[in-house]
Automatic annotation (TrEMBL):
Name by which UniProt lists this protein: Acetyl-CoA hydrolase
Keywords from the named record: Hydrolase
Taxonomic source organism: Marinobacter flavimaris
GO MF annotations, alphabetized: acetate CoA-transferase activity; hydrolase activity
One of the protein's GO biological processes: acetate metabolic process
Ranges for domain Acetyl-CoA hydrolase/transferase C-terminal: 440-607
Top-level taxonomic group: Bacteria
Pfam family, one: AcetylCoA_hyd_C
Length: 736
């Protein structure tokens, strides 16, 4: 069936026809997680299934992205113009919209293995059909459910000098491993269909992500219908987030490896890493104020305080936009190579990036090349820039242009000729970032599109099973991965952490799924396998629920994502708990040490009652200052109020929207309880804007001239919320 692959079409319905012709009406459709979903094709196929009940469509995917809508009338007013500005030209995923509205037809089922956090918490259909799997097992599980169609958005190669190729770009993570397995299934007699939807707005990436277009059966190429990429707006970074990121930045080892996830905690880490590198004096003032090395000695052995002279290498299932900022700041500069022997020599300092005759001598000593040089040696040396690109091996000699050189490294004349004519200047082909998928703000996509070829060559988008596993993979074996990932720091977030050392990251104890395991377990396990690596789980020490402040460090919980035997490092805004290899008593105490002081005594009593902590133990005085006020003092320690901004990497909200957003957030917190709702409504009814101070803000909300009772009440609520920003109530526990 290979002969009819690579069929180009500019008609999406014709593509759907071809898929049905190939596989019939029993379709199990595998889609990439996040950004790479081919919206035009998926919507057309879904519509066909809605129109034809004989079609059975099972969509298996993860992270189906929809523009935010808002729940209350005020949230909808606020989000409307913002959503139109960011997403107005992007077609919605029709099946995801119907999933959210609980109106999928009976012949369609959607199963996801990772949700946008909290998006389907109360969606019973999605909770029932959720597939719990590690990211590295997703391909296996897709095959197990009988996937027979795979569809993906790709970047066309013509504009990048690669005619006949496409780039999997944002999602080679699963597709690179799925394609050969589906072809094996096809060869065994099961019909399959692979569909690519071209989109010129998708940034091009080469290396592993670039494949022949005819590896797909059908290619939808309709440039006039290309749409902008779905973006994830920049999230605000709170002072608490900044302190968590700061503590994490103290654990980064120069010359090491970094994995980090999406969200404000990841952004905070990147920001503090940049401060450490580019504004080290200010960074050190905060470090000294917090007495980090005295309170948390793990940073002395496993961390660092200076600029990143050797640089970091990124190896992360998700290439967040933060990696690009690290690259721009000269931090993400440690390059790795696809040969374990060469990488080991680089790690030991035996081979610098500058090429010399000594490079050849070391390689010969380590038996990576022979002397006299052979054809395979010359090819390998050219591949890594040790020899110039134009060098060839012909007739037993090295040739460049019309000159010929003997390949005997023991011959002084040959060595001189090699040095003069043959040697390159620096090692080439190094990779500073391996990523499995990406999604981020629009400015991130624009930067990726505008990168030079040289910059783009430093990034390799690849299989998630290469990144998340240490097992051998066709892109690299375990020995290579271990050589590349020195001083690994795998930094992820959790929702809660139990005193016995278990992490709660993906679900609730009643069984409902908040997000998914994703690759978190893989990275935690990898940190325990790699020499010198550490797993770091970060979380805010508290959360607010129904008007109450609750601790995220808990005595126990009826669900866990990371089991206690994989406990390692935990960070809150109050410090670092180094748990690896510690006794249970020390684990309990070190976690209490970084809990909010409002909950420390209660946690200690429970630990002592359970017999896990000495009954005579008393909380030291210097543990008991874990308060929001202490956070404010810490972020101000450098004397520069702008050092830890709420949006360190730009923002998608206007100034007016930021103000309104704060006001609405305050209203939401104030009305979290029945009593609070009644009190807020009574105060709002008395709120006035007689001086017209909030005119532009009310206009932005569409409330300049309210007509009905609901609109008038909304106007009063907004005015009240804005007034509270100027004179916030004194609750004793307020958080700004």
């Amino acid at each position: 069936m290979a002969g009819d692959r690579g069929q180009l079409s500019n008609d999406v319905n014709a593509c759907v026809d071809e898929v049905i012709r190939r596989v019939g009406k029993e379709i199990t459709l595998g889609l990439p997680l996040g950004l790479g979903k081919p919206v035009r094709f998926v919507n057309a196929l879904y519509q066909r299934a809605k129109d034809d009940p004989e079609i059975s469509l099972h969509i298996v995917t993860a992270l189906s992205l929809l523009a935010p809508k808002g729940g209350s009338s005020l949230e909808k007013r606020f989000m409307g113009p913002f959503v139109e500005r960011l997403y107005g030209r992007i077609p919605e995923l029709a099946y995801a919209k119907d999933v959210s509205a609980n109106r999928l037809p009976e012949n369609v089922q959607v199963s996801e293995f990772f949700f946008k956090a909290g998006s389907y918490l109360n969606n019973r259909s999605q909770q029932r059909h959720y597939v719990c799997t590690n990211y590295t097992h997703a391909v296996r599980d897709l095959m197990a459910v009988g996937v027979n169609v795979v569809a993906q958005m790709v970047s066309p190669g013509e504009a990048h000098g690669q005619p006949g190729q496409v780039s999997l770009s944002c999602n080679p993570d699963l597709t690179l491993d799925l394609i050969p397995l589906l072809r094996e299934r096809e060869a065994a007699g099961t019909p399959v269909a692979l569909v690519a939807e071209m989109n010129q707005n998708l940034p091009w990436f080469g290396h592993h992500a670039a494949i022949e277009a005819d590896r797909f059966d059908v290619l939808l190429d309709q440039p006039s219908g290309d749409y902008p990429l779905f973006s994830a707006p920049q999230m605000s970074v709170s002072p608490e987030d900044h302190l968590i990121g700061f503590y994490a930045s103290t654990l980064l080892k120069d010359g090491g490896t970094l994995q980090v996830g999406i969200g404000s905690l990841g952004a905070a880490l990147v920001h503090s890493a940049i401060l450490r590198h580019s504004h080290n004096k200010a960074w050190r003032q905060v470090f000294d104020h917090l007495q980090v090395d005295q309170h948390f000695p793990v940073v002395r052995e496993d961390g660092g305080t200076g600029p990143f002279e050797e640089g970091l290498y990124g190896c992360s299932e998700m290439m967040v936009d933060g990696f690009l900022y690290l690259m721009q700041e000269g931090i993400l500069t440690r390059e790795v190579y696809d040969h374990a022997g060469l990488q080991t020599l680089i790690n030991r300092g035996d081979i610098p990036s500058e090429v010399s005759l000594a490079t050849l001598d070391v390689l010969r000593r380590e038996k990576l090349i022979d002397s006299p040089l052979r054809a395979k040696d010359v090819h390998w040396l050219v591949q890594h820039g040790i020899f110039k690109e134009a060098v060839e091996f012909k007739g037993g000699r090295l040739r460049i242009g019309d000159q010929s050189v003997e390949g005997d490294l023991d011959n002084p004349e040959a060595r001189q000729a090699i040095q003069t004519l043959i040697l390159g200047e620096r090692l080439t082909g190094g990779i500073a970032m391996h990523g499995g998928f990406y999604v981020g703000p629009e400015q991130f996509y624009q930067y990726l599109r505008e990168m030079t070829d040289e910059q783009r060559a430093k990034i390799c988008m690849t299989s998630v099973n290469f990144i998340n596993h240490l097992y051998d993979h066709r892109f690299g074996d375990q020995k290579l991965k271990a050589a590349q990932r020195v001083h690994g720091r795998f930094i992820n977030s959790a929702m809660m952490y139990t005193l016995n050392g278990a992490g709660v990251s993906d679900g609730l104890e009643d069984g409902r799924v908040v997000s998914g395991v994703g690759g978190q377990y893989n990275f935690v396990a990898m940190a325990h396998e790699l020499p010198g690596a550490r797993s770091i789980l970060s979380l805010r020490s508290t959360r607010s629920s129904q008007g109450k402040v609750l601790s995220n460090i808990v005595f126990n919980y009826g669900h866990c994502t990371i089991p206690r035997h994989l406990r390692d490092i935990v960070i809150t805004e109050y410090g670092i708990a180094d748990l690896r290899g510690q006794s249970d008593e020390q684990v309990f105490l070190r976690l209490i040490r970084i809990a909010d002081s409002r909950f420390q005594q209660e946690l200690l009593k429970k630990a002592q009652k359970a017999g896990k902590v000495d009954p005579a133990f008393k909380l030291p005085a210097d543990w008991c200052n874990n308060t929001p006020q202490a956070i404010r003092r810490a972020v101000a320690a450098a004397g520069d109020a702008s050092l830890f901004p709420p949006f360190p990497f730009g923002r998608d909200f206007t100034d007016e929207e930021l103000t309104l957003g704060k006001a609405l957030k305050g209203l939401k917190a104030a009305t979290a309880t029945r009593r609070g709702k009644l009190s807020t409504l009574l105060q709002a009814l008395r709120a006035r804007d007689d001086e017209g101070r909030y005119g532009s803000l009310l206009e932005r909300m569409g409330l300049s001239n309210p007509s009905g009772l609901r609109d008038k009440l909304d106007q009063r609520l907004v005015i009240h919320g804005l007034q509270q920003l100027e004179t916030p109530p004194d609750t004793g526990n307020s958080k700004t």
